[in-house]
């Protein structure tokens, strides 16, 4: 049961953090803003706040 | 006690000790004289002192008035020696007379001493005012520190960015300042840059070649910093108050027509502030749609998902992906080894598109911090600066990530400024109803480059839904056990 929960959680996060995201993580993503400024963004994960799994 | 008698200054003669003490306590004349004599003594004393500071000869003590004399004679109640007053014109008067006279003179001297010392021309009009009004006041007095309320203010503005040296033109359309100045910066070019201190002693310290061009602090208005106590009356989605009243009557007036609700309607329509032209042109269907929670753009983004329609997945941004997990079976079972199972369906959005949508929104973009800095607090020049922690973009982790990113080799053929985007995930399971096991486990995403004061304001809607996480259901698990 615990195994399934953990696997489930990891599987879902691997879906959320998809290949497109990994590409941006490694090589950045160019975003153009309304004032024509362009930046290359590198997403980095700093925090994840969540509860402990309730038993 | 026979034969003892004492006469007061006011002329009454007492033969009893207690009667005399009683009387002397209340006798006005005695009091006035005592106080005036004291004042006179004070005046003399001051004059004496002044003279002492002016002339430093020794002879001045001999000719001067001695204060102790008066105090002593007053205390004992004995008549004043005539020599102490400059009042020797007439024949020596009797005791009572002399005291009354000298008291009068003393009073005028006292007045002069008290009020005419610095202002020689004080007229009678001023003197007739009560003392409290005559007193001069300190204007513009500051309240004690604990009562003072300092309004928050944004961090000090950065000095204007220095003009870029290399003015190479970019062929890709309009020139942006960042494209010009931000050629890949080597570590050697970077230096410690400090901004000026603000009123609270806070200052920013960058480690970069130049101050950033994009400073969100410039766009901060007072409204961003202070919660306004009374927001303006909002009747959204109704365009005006008249429409709101009609709509309110329509929805909350009950299902059936009644006398009471009819009267209510009459009251609304008959109100002097009710304007029929406000109500006439409304798109009531749209307003009611907005009331029921649909988006104003009419795309019904949420609704489609709830109705399990997968007609426009790209438009909605919500994607369904089957979740596959591997479950191992031990070797004594019928089919040993790992097997993959579909454990459910994950509803989620593409992270990149969420981020892109979020940061390109003009209201958000202006508040993004692109370069981390260290915030310091230095209450005065002599004090040692103290590091202030509080924002993600002032944290050590962010600065480290930023530095390592700048040290990385840039993408080939790209010299855009590279910026770390802080992602902050959060998830929390919620029980949807009180009596069933319906649960949601939403995961959110916030951008750490935004200030926490904006992030935690519900009105700025800083947290984006990215997914509704699933849990392994009981049934699914029971299949294997």
Q: What is the 3D shape of chain A? A: elongated
Give the helix proportion of chain B (percent range).
25-40%
- Give me the count of strands of chain A: 2
SS class of chain A:
alpha+beta
Walk me through the structure.
The complex is a heterodimer of chains A (55) and B (481). Chain A has 55 residues and is α+β, with helices and mostly antiparallel strands. Chain A has one domain (2-41). Chain A is built from 2 helices and 2 strands, in the order ααββ. The longest helix of chain A is centred in the N-terminal third of the chain and has 15 residues, at 2-16. The N and C termini of chain A lie close together (12 Å). The longest helix of chain B is centred in the first third of the chain and has 27 residues, at 28-54. Mean pLDDT of chain B is 68; it is low at 57-96, 161-185 and 295-315. Chain B has helices at residues 17-26, 28-54, 60-63, 67-76, 95-115, 124-128, 131-134, 177-181, 222-225, 241-252, 259-270, 276-280, 284-291, 301-306, 313-316, 351-360, 362-365, 396-407, 452-455, 474-478, and strands at residues 6-7, 13-14, 191-194, 202-208, 318-329, 337-349, 374-377, 386-388, 418-427, 430-431, 439-440, 442-447, 464-468. Chain B has 481 residues and is of the alpha+beta class. Among the domains of chain B are: 6-131, no CATH class; 228-298, no CATH class; 303-366 and 421-481, no CATH class. In chain B, a hairpin with a 7-residue loop joins strand 3 (191-194) and strand 4. Chain B is built from 20 helices and 13 strands. The relative contact order of chain B is 0.06. At the A-B interface, helix 1, helix 2, strand 1 and strand 2 of A face helix 8, strand 5, strand 6, helix 16 and helix 18 of B. Strand 2 (38-50) of chain A pairs parallel with strand 9 (418-427) of chain B.
Summed up:
The complex is a heterodimer of chains A (55) and B (481). Chain A has 55 residues and is α+β, with helices and mostly antiparallel strands.
């Amino acid at each position: 049961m615990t195994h399934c929960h953990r696997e489930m959680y990891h599987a879902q996060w691997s879906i959320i953090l998809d290949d497109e995201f990994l590409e941006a993580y490694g090589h950045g993503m160019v975003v153009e803003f309304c004032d024509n400024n362009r930046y290359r963004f590198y997403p980095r994960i700093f925090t994840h706040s969540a509860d402990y799994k309730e038993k | 006690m026979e034969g003892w008698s004492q006469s007061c200054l006011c002329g009454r003669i007492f033969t009893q000790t207690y009667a005399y003490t009683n009387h002397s306590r209340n006798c006005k004349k005695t009091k006035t004289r005592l106080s005036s004599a004291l004042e006179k003594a004070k005046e003399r004393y001051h004059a004496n002192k002044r003279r002492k500071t002016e002339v430093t000869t020794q002879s001045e003590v001999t000719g001067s008035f001695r204060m102790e004399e008066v105090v002593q004679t007053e205390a004992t109640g004995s008549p004043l020696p005539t020599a102490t007053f400059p009042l020797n014109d007439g024949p020596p008067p009797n005791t009572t007379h002399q005291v009354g006279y000298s008291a009068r003179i003393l009073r005028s001297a006292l007045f002069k001493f008290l009020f005419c010392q610095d202002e020689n021309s004080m007229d009678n009009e001023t003197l007739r005012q009560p003392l409290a009004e005559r007193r001069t006041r300190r204007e513009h007095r500051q309240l004690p520190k604990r009562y003072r309320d300092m309004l928050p203010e944004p961090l000090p503005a950065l000095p204007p960015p220095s003009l870029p040296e290399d003015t190479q033109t970019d062929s890709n359309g309009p020139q942006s300042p960042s494209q010009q100045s931000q050629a890949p910066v080597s570590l050697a070019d970077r230096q410690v840059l400090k901004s000026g201190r603000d009123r609270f002693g806070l200052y920013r310290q960058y480690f970069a070649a130049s101050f950033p061009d994009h400073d969100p602090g410039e766009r901060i208005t007072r409204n961003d910093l202070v919660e306004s106590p009374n927001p303006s009356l909002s009747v959204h989605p109704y365009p005006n108050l008249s429409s709101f009243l009609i709509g309110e009557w329509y929805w909350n007036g009950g299902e059936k027509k009644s006398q009471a609700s009819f009267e209510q309607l009459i009251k609304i329509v008959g109100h002097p502030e009710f304007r029929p032209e406000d109500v006439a042109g409304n798109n009531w269907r749209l307003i009611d749609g907005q009331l029921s929670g649909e988006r104003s753009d009419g795309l019904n983004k949420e609704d489609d998902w709830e109705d399990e329609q997968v007609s426009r997945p790209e438009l909605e941004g919500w994607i369904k992906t089957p979740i596959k997990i591997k479950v191992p079976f031990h070797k004594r079972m019928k089919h040993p080894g790992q097997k993959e199972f579909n454990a459910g369906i994950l509803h989620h959005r593409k992270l990149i598109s969420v981020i892109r949508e979020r940061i390109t929104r003009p209201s958000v973009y202006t508040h993004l911090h692109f370069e981390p800095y260290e915030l310091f607090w230095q209450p005065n020049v002599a004090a040692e600066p103290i590091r202030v922690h509080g924002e993600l973009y002032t944290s050590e982790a962010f600065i480290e990530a930023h530095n390592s990113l700048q040290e990385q080799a840039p993408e080939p053929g790209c010299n855009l400024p590279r910026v770390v985007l802080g992602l902050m995930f959060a998830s929390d399971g919620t029980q949807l109803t009180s009596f069933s096991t319906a649960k949601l486990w939403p995961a959110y995403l916030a951008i750490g480059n935004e200030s926490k004061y904006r992030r935690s304001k519900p009105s700025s809607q800083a947290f984006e839904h990215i997914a509704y996480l699933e849990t392994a259901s009981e049934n699914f698990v029971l299949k294997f056990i």
